[in-house]
Write a structure and sequence with these properties.
It is found in: Endomembrane system; Endoplasmic reticulum membrane; Microsome membrane. There is one protein chain. This protein is mainly α. It is 59% helix and 4% strand. It has two domains: 268 residues, no CATH class; 134 residues, no CATH class. A hairpin with a 2-residue loop joins β3 and β4. The structure holds NADPH dihydro-nicotinamide-adenine-dinucleotide phosphate. The site of NADPH dihydro-nicotinamide-adenine-dinucleotide phosphate has 20 residues, from α15, β6, α16 and α17.
Length: 435
């Protein structure tokens, strides 16, 4: 156990933590327990549907895919073992005494957890091992050939982890429960996540799953698809190079700025249950890689001019995304930082201020705008003939509109009149002059 990562709770604080209670969740999201139950079925069903459809000749979402695969054909113990080895590798890198330590936000019991910051090293080590596998001529295209079986294995792991997390949460102190996942309804709490920061010793399960096995796995999956493209055509297409390149940049950016995750809704507000476990370990790697999966079976010609336009679009999205996220992070860390000190702000009753100029004066969620522009750039290399590779940008628009509404709700509760004033001064939420 790494001593720097353990709970920063002294004996007296520990006793205090037992007495602090997390209030019951009154406002249930996602349609309450019934909505949660439907999502438990719909989310894995959607992953399967997308992958099966993508694997058909027409890749059309308007056609019912032919005969469904048998349960036996979806079960591949070797895929499950490979995935477990991948998680174990990431867990070992996470625990290595490399990187730095950061503190999370102050919790309800007045303590702050410590987190290891070394996800970028995990990416580098994984990239090195992948390079070694290519050099040794290991068949990375196996992942493409058995992709649906890998997705099923990831769903089984996510479900098993969620069951473990829920059982564990039943023995957790009241103060450790998530404000959003403490409704008293087992289905709802299982889905949203009952415990806020479940840990085994110093190992933070939610923090580990958020960025490492799924996000780095997404890049590895893309690389396997690229290798399959080379196997089929002798060299990778420009379209698949662009998709894999853009997405690798996005993942590396997230890992490089790992510390920023400590103030996100996922870490601060949401518990760790099926929603995040399935999202991190199955949904992200197996649906975000859909464009590259599509391109192997349905190659697309891309002119140099079109490619340049797409690169430019991705660049614009990245500048808005990174510029706005970094501006807010710098401001929250130190409002007198020279890079943000000149920006106009609104004071709030909590003592914190809200930025009202710079990126955050353009719309109320400029970071979502940049993210969505990039999402479009990742789909365009797949041409305009199919909707399926646009699944990510369509779904992501819905996700960010919903997420934005959740965040507005939280900010209204936190900042009241100051938030109303911010909404008056910056009337658009994500898309300037549209929404
Ligand atoms: P945000 O980074 O948007 O943070 C929202 C918080 O920022 C608010 O709760 C508030 O918190 C603070 N804030 C809001 N407005 C202002 C302002 N004007 N001035 C100062 N602070 C303000 O949260 P997310 O976690 O949703 O997003 C982080 C990034 O992750 C985004 O770029 C998003 O696109 C991306 N993302 C990507 C996903 C994917 O699957 N690819 C999924 C989800 C997110 P406070 O005041 O308490 O600091």
């Amino acid at each position: 156990m790494c001593p720097l990562q353990s709970y920063s709770v002294s004996m007296s604080e520990g006793n205090m933590a037992d007495k602090i209670k997390t209030p019951r969740t009154k406002e249930r999201e996602f349609g309450g327990a019934i909505g949660a139950l439907l999502m438990l079925i719909a989310l894995p069903g959607t992953v399967l549907y997308l992958l099966i459809t993508c694997n058909t000749e027409s890749a059309s979402v308007f056609q019912v895919p032919g005969p469904l695969p048998t349960l036996q054909s979806l079960w591949n113990p070797f895929a499950l073992i490979l995935l477990l080895c991948w998680f174990a590798l990431q867990a070992v890198i996470y625990m290595l005494p490399i990187g730095t330590i950061a503190e999370g936000i102050t919790l309800r019991d007045n303590t702050r957890l410590k987190y290891k910051i070394n996800a970028f090293y995990a990416f580098l080590v994984s990239a090195l091992l992948a390079g070694l596998a290519i050099k040794m001529e290991l068949h990375l295209s196996y992942v493409y050939d058995h992709f649906i079986e890998f997705a099923v294995a990831a769903a089984i792991i996510s479900l098993s982890l969620s069951i473990f997390l829920y059982m564990k949460s039943l023995g957790a102190p009241e103060s450790a429960l998530a404000p959003g996942g403490n409704s008293g309804n087992p289905i709802y709490d299982f889905f949203i996540g009952h415990e806020l920061n479940p840990r085994i010793g110093s190992f933070d399960l939610k923090y580990f799953c958020e960025l490492r096995p799924g996000l780095i796995g997404w890049c590895l999956i893309n690389l396997c698809f690229l290798m399959k493209d080379i196997e089929l055509r002798g060299s990778p297409s420009l379209s698949i190079i662009l998709v894999c390149g853009f997405q690798a940049l996005y993942v590396m950016d997230a890992l490089w700025h790992e510390e920023a995750i400590l103030t996100t809704m996922d870490i601060v507000h949401d518990g760790f249950g099926f929603m995040l476990a399935f999202g991190d370990l199955c949904w992200v790697p197996f649906t975000y890689s859909l464009q590259a999966y599509f391109l192997v079976r349905h190659p697309q010609e891309l002119s140099t001019l079109a490619a340049l336009g797409i690169v430019l679009l991705n660049g614009v999205g990245y500048i808005i995304f990174r510029g706005s996220n970094s501006q807010k992070n710098a401001f929250r860390r130190n409002p007198s930082d020279p890079s943000v000190a000149g920006l106009e702000t609104i004071p709030t009753a909590t003592g914190k201020r809200l930025l009202v100029s710079g990126w955050w004066g353009l719309v109320r969620h400029p970071n979502y705008l940049g993210d969505l522009i990039m999402a479009l750039a990742w789909s365009l290399p797949c041409g305009l003939g199919h909707i399926l590779p646009y699944f990510y940008v369509i779904y992501f628009t819905g996700l960010l509109i919903h997420r934005e509404a959740r965040d507005e709700h939280q900010c209204m509760k936190k900042y009241g009149l100051a938030w109303q004033e911010y909404c008056r001064r910056v009337p658009y939420r994500i898309f300037p002059y549209i929404y």
